[in-house]
Design goal:
Oligomer: single chain
Radius of gyration: 15 Å
Number of strands: 6
Helix content: 25-40%
Length: about 170
């Protein structure tokens, strides 16, 4: 896969400030300015007006069906989650279940299933530089993407509804 074909996925409502999309957008601007090529897909409830603010294309997908959502996850190469805080954080787990490597903030919840460098990458909330660095690392390092994706998928299977039901 050529780096031009790297698909980066964002999921969530741009109007919720605690989701930290500003961090993601600014980090991706740095990645773009350093000459790395990628495509961004943003699954959202409403489409933000970022015209003139960002210099790379974003494909907004407004409220896709569950079937489309699963397809979009599976066709992604990197999932970025930038919340300031979360109870659990389902999107990273959904990405992991879909075999997509995850870069997430340490926002609560995700730390219970993401082990840094083993099945995902963790950064501090709001840390634009670290997010840009982690994104570039995953764009350039196909082997790391594959490793995180594989281990992430194995982790997510432990959270399968039937497995959880049996534990209860």
């Amino acid at each position: 896969k050529n780096n031009d074909d790297i698909n980066i996925l964002l999921v969530g409502n741009p109007q919720l400030r605690f989701k930290g999309f500003e961090t993601a957008l600014n980090a991706l601007q740095i990645v773009h300015e350093k000459g790395h090529k990628f495509n961004v897909k943003w699954i959202c409830q409403s489409i933000p007006n970022l015209e003139g603010i960002i210099k790379y294309p974003i494909n907004y997908i407004k409220m896709p069906s569950q079937e489309q959502l699963a397809k979009i996850y599976r066709s992604s190469d990197i999932f970025i989650f930038t919340s300031w805080y979360e109870g659990f954080g389902m999107p990273p787990l959904e990405a992991m279940a879909s075999g997509v490597p995850v870069i997430s903030t340490e926002c609560g919840g995700v730390e219970s299933f993401i082990k840094p460098g083993f099945n995902g990458l963790l950064i501090k909330p709001g840390d634009i530089e670290s997010l840009a660095h982690a994104t570039i690392e995953l764009i350039k390092n196909k082997r790391l993407r594959e490793l995180l994706a594989e281990r992430g998928r194995q982790t997510a299977l432990k959270f399968d509804a039937e497995v959880i039901a049996q534990k209860w």
